[in-house]
Structure formats: structure tokens, C-alpha cells
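Translate structure to sequence.
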């Protein structure tokens, strides 16, 4: 029997969506999407209200929503709240170092800053449609930069601050981006992240960038290139604090966000203006059951989609107040998250299972030290949550009374897709609940046949489009089609496996492709392999994930060396450094297993299934090995396995 947590009276009181409302909305959104979405478009402020709702097909792939609508995203996130109530708080900022004073930006101030930055970007030459790369610490100017692009109709590409210069350069080149917004440096856990130096190194590789705007934050000494680089604080005073919002077509691009897949380099997932914003707005209000005046804290970084949708676009388009936190959960002490919740009286807290697992390890005392009575709702995202961590979250952080929304979604979906709704659905630890309005999940087997009924597992597909769906891969529509719509013709393939249980609740079982999820960060095994073979000593590399207590998945790399190269600890350290240089510290392998050979079929295909089993320390159940060219290779790998 699953453990079930029914909807509490407190969660049901005043909810936007009880069980009956969910049934009606969900039913209508699937049966009559036109009427359903017509009823939602007034969530946004339009220059021209759309008359066409969804207009999409997946063969050939052409996805459009609200296509005749015209709006400006920054107006929706700022002007309408600033006009009604300029003093309303938009962002409360908490620095990495608890001794640094907080910043509080009202909607009026955030609008002024955004307009100023839009004018500064325009002075640098940024025009509608241009791609602007943003690599920033978690400071309000990160949101300002994104919204300033939206105001001008420029397309932002936010690159997570933990990526290496080489990774930044690759994204700049792919997006053909000639503008960068960054900061001198970020602070994380008391350590300096030299962002400007990373940008400088990236631009040495990729010189097409014409202008760089640098926000002074840490005060770190940085080199400024005359004619290319300018300080935000120097230009800020000289530009107007009003900026006319560019009227944008609903299907004009809003942003590109690079994400990893099974093959090749990260792809630039492209989201457009209206459908994305409406999805972020509707899911934000409904999933978190947001109530006016509440303080919402999403602990993600703006470099990931969770930060885009639930720090910036969802909450601000709803006129909410968000907490933005620069630091990490465990610094200066392991109780930092709880200290911040208590200090600011956070009402809704949204984090990743990997953070909870690392905090759980510290026991209950760090949580108990703080008054968490302001909390009303908890959420998780990014990877499956193990039931043990869910129960700890519920009992210790939620005092056994707070609902938890476990939200399943992806960069490509724009916002939450499956979750228990707090006022409508009983929750089961580890389950992602039910599909959101308009979401049509299904399970298919390896041959693409639908798996009907309940208490079944398979590959997770979606059978209908929703407004938040990514429209293409930037510059490579064919890759978009191949990645998502080719495995199962006419269906969107998520890359995840799932189970629909006896009650119709959905459980995400993890990726079924060559993507691994390390501390909630998505990485392609192919990317790590390509970094490893970039090292002069390496002949071949095969990378797989394995279960990791804290990170969810760890990275296990099997490497063969070129003839004549001797393996050593120094070489292993060098290989690890190569991965950090090429991608960033998040991709650093936990284990690098040097081996004279990889297990291959007689036709030369690497048998990853076997490598996964060995990495998982499950070598007792290797399955069929009869197609192996040389069974002795496997015996040697098992004997030398590094994860025991
Ligand atoms: C995984 C993050 C289980 C999943 C928003 C998905 C989850 C990938 C959950 C997307 C969840 C995300 N339960 N698995 N609640 N949320 N995932 O693009 O494998 O960084 O395909 O988007 O994370 O990761 P991405």
C-alpha cells in the first residue's frame, strides 16, 4: 500500500483549485482547448488580444499558440503591477554572506531598473531579435537583464554561472550572440566565481561579441576592454528610466536556453512570448496556490529553466513577491535555508531533492533551530524524490501539515506539467501526481504502442501541445523534430520513463535516454565523453550514470588510453580537469575507470547496458552477454570496478 497524504483542511481553505475545479478545468482543457484557453488569455495584458488559440501540428512540427496576439512580456511582469501599486515588493534579495544587507526592489523600482538597462543595451547596439547572452550571479540584475531584453524584443540566452569559458563560448557561437551581460564576480558559499574573467576567456575563443555590460557586485578587480566593455553603474545614471516596450508577436522568440540531450552538444531550446508566459503564469498561481502578499522562494539558479519560470516570469507576471538567494544551502552553516525562511517569513518554498538529501544528512536540529511557521506550502523539482526524503521534508520542514507539490517538467515544457495540486489531490511520497490543465500524458512501449489501464509502466510521451511547449531548437529545427517527435511518430517523447499507478497517479522513474541528472542538473553522457576524448591521452570514453545518495546520479566514466600511454593518478586528475575545463565543475566524473578495452558487440557497438550495471555495482545481473565480442573485458571491468 502506498502511503497517502490527503488534502488537509488548511490547504483546501481558500484554494484556487479544489478537486471539482481540477476535474472541470482539466476535462475542458483536453476536450475543448479553444474555450479553455479563451478563458485564460485575460491573465495577460495584450496590445492586441489573440483570437486564435492553439494552432499546432506535430507532423510536420509547427507549434503556435495565440499567434495573432501582440504583447510585451516586461509590461506583463512589471508595468501593470507598478501602475497599480508601485510600492509592492517584487524581489527581496538575500546575499551569499548573511552579513551583507538585503536588497528590496518594489515593482516600481524593478520597472525603472529594467527600463534603464533596456536603454543601456539599446545604446550598446542591441535591437529587436538580437541574442543577448547573460551570465550572472543570483542578484536582482540577473532578472533586470532578462526583462530588459524582453522589453526591447531581444532574445536572451542565460548561461549558468558554473559553466566553463569554453562552454560559454560554444553557446555564444551557437546563438550568434554579439552581446553579453555579466558581473565582475559572483559569490557562492564564501567562494568567488570569477564571471567576468570567464567571459573574457570565452571571448578570446569566440570574438564575435561587440559589447559587454558588467554589473559591479563583488568588487573584484577585473580587466575592462576599452570599446567593448562598460560598467553598468557608470552607464546607469546617464540613461532614461523609461523605455517604450516593443510590441511583440505572440510567436516571436523570448529566450533560448541550452540543455543537454542524448547526443551531441547542448541544444538551444527556444521559447516564444505569449504561450510561455501564460503557461508560467497559470502554473505558478495554480500549482503553488499563490495568495496575494505571500513571499515565494524558489532556490533554483536563473541559469536553469526553473529560475526562468519560477523566479522571474511566473511570479512577476502574477505580481508576486519573490525571494532571490545568491548562496548555497549549507553555508556559512548547514541551517542557512531555514535561517533565510525564518528571517524573511517565506510562505512557499520550492527546492530540489538533491538539496533536501544533503540537508537531511545533517539531522533535524538545524531545522528545529528556526521558526518556520510562516511556511504554507512546499515544493520540489528537478529529479525524482525518493520517498524517504519526501517524508523527511513533510515531517521535519512541513511539521506534518504542509502540502508538498512534486512538480515534473522539463526545459522543453516551459513550466510544470504534472504535480499534485495542493487543494485537489492527495499526495504520495515520490509521485508526481496528476497532469496539469491541458497536459495529455501517455505511456508507450518500445514499439510505440500505447500502454492502457492503470498500474503500468513505460516511456512517457505527451499526445497534445500546450502553450508552454518549446517551439524549436534555435537554428536547427530538424534537430528539434528528431529529438522529440521521431522516436514515436506524432507524439512528443519526454526521454523519461514513468509509471501510472492503480489510482492513476504518475511516478517519474528517471531518464530512459543517455541523459543523466546530477544534483538536478541535466547532462548528456555524450557531452562528457566528448570532453574526455578531447584529451590527448584518451582513445575512447563511455560515460554512464549510477545512483548516488546525495546527487541522485553520479557520473562514471570508462576510459581507454591511446597506445603507449601509461595510466596514473596524475592522468586521472588531468582527465577530470579536462572535463571541468570543457564543460564546468558540475560535469566532473565521480569515477574515472581506466580500462584496456570497452565491452563491445561483434559489430563494434559499446554495450552501455553492461557498463551501467557495473557502475551501479549490479554486476551480478549483467543480463545477456552472448553478443559480446570478448567476454574477458567484462570480467576485468567487474574486478576493477570503482563503485563498491
Ligand atoms: C527530471 C527541470 C522526477 C526529468 C525542470 C526531466 C523530474 C528532467 C522532476 C528535466 C520531478 C524534473 N520528478 N523527475 N518532479 N522534475 N525531472 O530540463 O528526468 O533541467 O526530464 O528541467 O528532470 O530537467 P530540466
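Result:
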Amino acid at each position: 500500500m502506498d502511503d497517502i497524504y490527503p488534502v488537509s483542511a488548511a490547504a483546501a481553505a481558500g484554494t484556487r483549485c479544489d478537486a471539482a475545479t481540477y476535474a472541470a478545468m482539466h476535462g475542458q482543457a483536453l476536450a475543448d482547448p479553444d474555450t479553455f484557453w479563451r478563458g485564460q488569455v485575460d491573465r495577460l495584458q495584450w496590445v492586441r488580444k489573440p483570437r486564435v488559440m492553439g494552432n499546432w501540428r506535430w507532423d510536420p512540427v509547427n507549434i503556435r499558440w495565440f499567434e495573432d496576439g501582440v504583447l510585451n512580456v516586461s509590461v506583463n511582469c512589471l508595468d501593470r503591477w507598478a501602475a497599480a501599486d508601485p510600492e509592492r515588493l517584487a524581489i527581496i534579495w538575500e546575499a551569499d554572506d548573511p552579513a551583507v544587507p538585503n536588497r528590496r526592489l518594489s515593482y516600481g523600482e524593478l520597472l525603472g531598473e529594467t527600463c534603464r538597462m533596456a536603454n543601456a543595451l539599446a545604446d550598446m547596439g542591441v535591437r529587436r531579435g538580437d541574442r543577448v547572452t547573460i551570465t550572472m550571479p543570483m542578484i536582482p540584475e540577473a532578472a533586470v537583464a532578462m526583462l530588459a531584453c524582453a522589453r526591447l524584443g531581444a532574445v536572451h540566452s542565460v548561461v549558468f554561472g558554473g559553466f566553463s569559458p569554453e562552454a560559454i563560448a560554444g553557446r555564444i557561437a551557437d546563438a550568434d550572440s554579439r552581446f553579453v551581460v555579466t558581473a565582475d564576480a559572483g559569490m557562492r558559499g564564501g567562494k568567488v566565481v570569477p564571471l567576468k574573467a570567464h567571459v573574457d576567456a570565452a571571448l578570446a575563443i569566440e570574438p564575435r561579441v561587440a559589447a559587454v555590460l558588467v554589473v559591479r557586485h563583488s568588487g573584484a578587480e577585473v580587466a575592462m576592454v576599452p570599446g567593448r566593455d562598460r560598467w553598468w553603474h557608470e552607464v546607469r545614471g546617464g540613461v532614461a528610466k523609461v523605455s517604450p516596450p516593443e510590441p511583440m508577436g505572440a510567436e516571436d522568440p523570448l529566450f533560448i536556453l541550452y540543455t543537454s540531450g542524448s547526443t551531441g552538444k547542448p541544444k538551444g531550446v527556444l521559447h516564444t512570448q505569449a504561450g510561455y508566459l501564460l503557461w508560467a503564469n497559470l502554473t505558478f498561481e495554480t500549482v503553488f496556490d499563490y495568495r496575494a502578499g505571500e513571499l515565494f522562494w524558489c532556490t533554483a539558479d536563473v541559469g536553469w529553466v526553473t529560475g526562468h519560470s519560477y523566479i522571474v516570469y511566473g511570479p512577476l507576471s502574477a505580481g508576486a513577491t519573490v525571494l532571490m538567494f545568491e548562496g548555497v544551502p549549507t553555508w556559512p552553516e548547514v541551517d542557512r535555508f531555514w535561517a533565510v525562511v525564518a528571517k524573511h517569513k517565506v510562505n512557499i518554498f520550492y527546492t530540489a531533492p538533491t538539496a533536501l538529501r544533503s540537508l537531511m544528512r545533517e539531522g533535524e536540529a538545524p531545522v528545529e533551530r528556526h521558526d518556520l511557521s510562516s511556511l504554507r506550502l512546499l515544493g520540489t523539482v528537478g529529479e525524482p524524490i525518493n520517498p524517504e526524503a519526501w517524508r523527511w521534508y513533510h515531517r521535519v520542514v512541513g511539521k506534518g501539515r504542509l502540502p508538498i507539490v512534486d512538480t515534473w517538467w522539463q526545459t522543453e515544457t516551459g513550466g510544470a506539467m504534472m504535480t499534485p495540486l495542493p487543494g485537489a489531490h492527495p499526495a504520495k511520497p515520490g509521485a508526481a501526481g496528476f497532469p496539469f490543465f491541458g497536459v495529455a500524458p501517455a505511456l508507450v512501449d518500445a514499439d510505440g504502442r500505447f500502454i492502457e489501464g492503470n498500474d503500468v509502466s513505460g516511456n512517457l510521451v505527451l499526445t497534445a501541445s500546450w502553450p508552454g511547449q518549446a517551439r524549436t531548437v534555435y537554428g536547427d529545427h530538424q534537430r528539434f523534430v528528431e529529438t522529440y517527435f521521431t522516436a514515436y511518430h506524432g507524439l512528443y517523447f519526454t526521454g523519461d520513463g514513468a509509471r501510472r499507478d492503480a489510482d492513476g497517479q504518475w511516478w517519474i522513474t528517471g531518464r530512459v535516454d543517455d541523459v543523466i541528472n546530477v544534483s538536478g542538473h541535466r547532462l548528456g553522457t555524450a557531452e562528457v565523453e566528448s570532453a574526455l576524448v578531447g584529451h590527448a591521452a584518451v582513445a575512447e570514453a563511455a560515460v554512464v550514470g549510477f545512483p548516488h545518495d546525495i546527487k541522485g546520479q553520479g557520473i562514471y566514466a570508462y576510459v581507454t588510453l591511446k597506445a603507449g600511454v601509461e595510466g596514473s593518478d596524475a592522468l586521472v586528475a588531468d582527465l577530470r580537469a579536462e572535463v571541468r575545463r570543457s564543460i564546468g565543475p558540475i560535469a566532473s566524473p565521480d569515477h574515472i575507470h581506466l580500462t584496456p578495452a570497452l565491452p563491445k558487440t561483434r559489430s563494434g557497438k559499446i554495450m552501455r547496458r553492461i557498463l551501467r550495471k557495473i557502475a551501479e555495482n549490479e554486476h551480478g545481473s549483467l543480463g545477456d552477454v552472448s553478443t559480446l565480442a570478448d567476454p574477458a573485458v567484462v570480467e576485468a571491468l567487474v574486478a576493477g570496478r570503482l563503485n563498491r
